[in-house]
Amino acid sequence: NIFIGSQTTINPFWLESTISLSNIASPIENLNYPIVTSTNSNLGNRRFYRIGTSVIAGGTYTLSFYAKYLNMPYLNVRAESGGQNIGIGVDLTNRTFFQGRYDGGNVLQTPISFSYDDNDRFTMTFLANTNNVNLLFYMSTSTVNSNSNQNPASIYFTGVQLENFTNSTSYIPTVASAVTRNEDVLTVNPPAGTVK
């Protein structure tokens, strides 16, 4: 996971937000969902997170995170690289997608692929245009504008991961640096009498 500070309660890169820890269990073992609340007096600005990270130009990357609806129905996810703005809009109330927006009504380019599973994990795969990518997240009350008229604005959000890969793997927590761990291993113990 090359995304630094992936566990939101210890992340030093938040913008215009306060963070408190909810008591709702996350699909990630031993990790709860922090509540991300924006109390910015500028109701048009609901970008609650931005971080830049080094990547390989032309490389394929997969961004994943966990998110749940609280009082903001929509989340716009943006990967900005060399003037390209790639992303998608997510309806947190029913796990569907729409044409993503940023900085108001600007339209995001559709990523290579995107999905949202039953564990509330969102995944987006995109191509990096340069050696740097900025990852940005916007809470919204509209599918045609990244702004919001809700104050305070809150969602459950945690477990951000960015991988130089065509799909996501199981979550790897990070704090101050990227983390690599051994590959996932699936172990199956067939019941007695099963013919292998």
**Backbone structural class:** mainly beta
Strand order, biggest sheet? 1-2-13-4-11-10
Give the beta-strand count: 13
Shape descriptor reads globular
DSSP helix fraction: under 10%
End-to-end CA span: 36 Å
Strand content: 35-45%
Rounded mean pLDDT score: 82
Q: How many helix segments?
A: 0
Sketch the major β-sheet. Answer: 6 strands, antiparallel
Helix and strand element order: EEEEEEEEEEEEE
Care to describe what's here?
The chain is mainly β. Helix content is 0%, strand content 44%. It contains no helices and 13 strands. The strands form 3 sheets. The protein has a 6-stranded antiparallel sheet with strand order 1-2-13-4-11-10, with no helix packed on it. Strands 3-12-5-6-7 form a 5-stranded antiparallel sheet, with no helix packed on it. Strands 8-9 form a two-stranded antiparallel ribbon.
Features:
single chain, 196 residues, mainly beta, six-stranded antiparallel β-sheet, five-stranded antiparallel β-sheet, 13 strands, 0% helix
